[in-house]
Amino acid sequence: MTNKEAIKRSERSQNLKVFRLEDSPWFYVESEEGKICYKVCYNSETDYYCNCGDFARGFKNDTTFRCKHVMAVMTSVTEGDPQNVHFLERWRPKLEDTFIKRIDDKDFVLYAGLLDVAHQKNLCAVDVELIQNPTQENGNTAICKARVETVDGRRFSDIGDANPQNCNIKVAKHLIRMASTRAKARAFRDMDNIGMTALEELGDLNDIIGDHDGKKVALRPDNIRKFPRKDKIASKPQNGDGQKVEETSEETSGQAVPVETQPVQAKSPASPDKKNGNGKSIQKPSPMISEAQKNAIYNLSRRRNMSVEDLENLAMKAYNLPVENLTASDASAFIRILQQAS
Fold first, then answer.
1. Mind listing the pLDDT tens digit for each residue in 300-321?
2. Residue 222 lies in domain
3. Which of 46, 76, 106 corresponds to the end of one domain?
């Protein structure tokens, strides 16, 4: 029996249930289908027997041959003592919850989790081929093809692409490596039978759709206005119109003369302060759509085969504004609409 055959039988033996007869070297091992049990006698690593047909055929040519039922008993015996046997639970490859990332009410699997499950399924080979080198003519798009294989000979393959538009800005300089990771992730998903999209397949949408995870959104300088602290404003007395007055003085007639003042505000040369009729500052305008949000919207529309006209019509229908004139908050909501349109 070759080493590869032994590994394959050992893998299959992990799924078998073992039952021990009372105070004897005899065991019952359940079949993979769970319909029958095979009888195994196990005294030591060199003295064993199984009544299955595979053992009868293999033992004739090789006296060291071990069928999967014998291997199941051996893995259930601790410290070489056949009297001390534990019950084998059915083992299945499992994706740990720590490898699952939830973004915008949708679950994504990490590449590390796909690789972990692949090794649980006895991954034996991974091969990546560069199909397209990123150049200016192809929009700096790298394309790789990955092939993976298990010990039992099952093969899976898929491709992955990467360009500056669908990658995080931090990895945009490493397009070939990103395309390779995405190709392997897609092949591992088929091998592991995992339907969730890998997080590495996404662009940098996590910091521009709704929840910024503590990140600050960059605003244009002309949209920033400084206001005095509330505690300082509240400490000053007010007149009947709600305006601030200075402390009283007794010049001229000896009576208190209110002097109206306005809160001091830092003015920006690009946008001078404006006040309404009550002397209150007008609320600063909402920040406009960012370049990252525009790129995300256009990338999502291309993935859904939407023309520019269809995209503008959808924006007008939802917000009565073209894409270029959307606010940052409207753009975040619009991105969600496009994500859910698939």
1. 777 777 888 888 888 888 888 8
2. 206-237+287-342
3. 76
